[in-house]
UniProtKB/TrEMBL annotation:
<dbReference type="InterPro" id="IPR013221">
    <property type="entry name" value="Mur_ligase_cen"/>
</dbReference>
<comment type="similarity">
    <text>Belongs to the MurCDEF family.</text>
</comment>
<keyword id="KW-0573">Peptidoglycan synthesis</keyword>
<dbReference type="Pfam" id="PF21377">
    <property type="entry name" value="MurD_N"/>
</dbReference>
<feature type="domain" description="Mur ligase C-terminal">
    <location>
        <begin position="309"/>
        <end position="422"/>
    </location>
</feature>
<keyword id="KW-0133">Cell shape</keyword>
<keyword id="KW-0963">Cytoplasm</keyword>
<feature type="domain" description="Mur ligase central">
    <location>
        <begin position="108"/>
        <end position="287"/>
    </location>
</feature>
<dbReference type="InterPro" id="IPR036565">
    <property type="entry name" value="Mur-like_cat_sf"/>
</dbReference>
<keyword id="KW-0067">ATP-binding</keyword>
<keyword id="KW-0436">Ligase</keyword>
<comment type="function">
    <text>Cell wall formation. Catalyzes the addition of glutamate to the nucleotide precursor UDP-N-acetylmuramoyl-L-alanine (UMA).</text>
</comment>
<dbReference type="InterPro" id="IPR004101">
    <property type="entry name" value="Mur_ligase_C"/>
</dbReference>
<dbReference type="Pfam" id="PF08245">
    <property type="entry name" value="Mur_ligase_M"/>
</dbReference>
<keyword id="KW-0132">Cell division</keyword>
<keyword id="KW-0547">Nucleotide-binding</keyword>
<dbReference type="GO" id="GO:0016874">
    <property type="term" value="F:ligase activity"/>
</dbReference>
Amino acid sequence: MAKRLVVLGGGESGVGTAILGKKKGYDVFVSDFGKIKENYKEVLSLNKLEWEEGKHTEALVLNADVVMKSPGIPDKAPIVKQLREKGIPVISEIEFASQYMAADTIGITGSNGKTTTTMLTHHLLEQARLKVGLAGNIGKSFAWQVAEGKFENYVLELSSFQLDGIVEYRPHIAVITNISPDHLDRYNYDYELYIAAKFRIVMNQTENDYLVYDADDETITKWLEKNSIRPQKIPFSISGNVTEGIYVEEENIKSNINNDGFIMPIRELSLEGKHNVKNAMAATAVAQLMRIRKQTIRESLSDFDGVEHRLEKVLKIQNVQYINDSKATNTNATFFALDSMTVPTVWIVGGVDKGNDYDELMQLVREKVKAIVCLGVDNQKIINAFGNVVDVVVETGSMVEAVRTAQQLAEKGDAVLLSPACASFDLFESYEDRGKQFKNAVQNL
């Protein structure tokens, strides 16, 4: 009899997993406690897949042999607890799909910078004419792409939630961009649990695999001192912490991976800011491990366009630059954004706070921020933190109002920066929706 695969969540990862599962001969059922989007319903129907929405029917879920849980569903959800009590394996899309592909994967995780690093790495490998897919937390579902079988390698952006659901998944090259407190609401507010989730990326790696990591990141280096791992370590550093792997010397990125010296002047990178130097180093390390020509790496690093909603320059109006950094959903991401500002800044901030500590931004806010525009349902914490530091703090309840207020507060030569440091779900569907509304509001000024 066919094994039963139950998919919890009818979004991108769920539908992709259902398609791959059917192709591999499973009896598949998709169950979503919320609503399934119309386009996904059409795909499920076209593929003759059974589904339900608005509920989890226990009789149809608890008879599974294996369950794929979408990353957005927490372990605390009652149906997940019931499955675990019955001893039914609950895995992630990454785990399910990786068993059906012969390809090597590059797995990229971290609290910040992972999308840029993932897209930049994919760009480098694609320019080198490798057949390489881009998936994980980004773009088309990994399982769906595996079902279509077009690629020989994959670059995967992996969240801690996806790593929570792996058992045997083993990336050939793992990258950890950095670790800072994020999503602690999903880890019982225990930072150590979150750190451990990130390091699950190395748990199945062997001596023939690699871990590329930021040697300037205290959380990463401390963990590596305490725990022994099998993969070969490839560190990168912009502050002279290493002379192996990749490092910065006299405004050049230098690498000695595979004893094959590589030099790239920082000024030739297409992306600006210190954090992007690190993202470029991580991508370069992967490209060198994949034996890509130095010339191709240099060209790719200098012509990469960047990521939407990540320090994206929108427009200059009356000599004020408007910047969309909606993807900054935690204080660490906003730290990088403020750090890269070179002119007086009107900062639009706020949303759903996941346990933020605003102290780490204090010095940068003092130096760079002339006015704060709060954009959230509850802005009290932001007002308490910065009310005495910044002369002007204004509360707004919509993106149009926030952008208009920022325009009034900005003078020639200033910048208006949307970098919320919070999740978007109080006023928006997603950080993408928030970023698009910002861009629309700016274009309508």
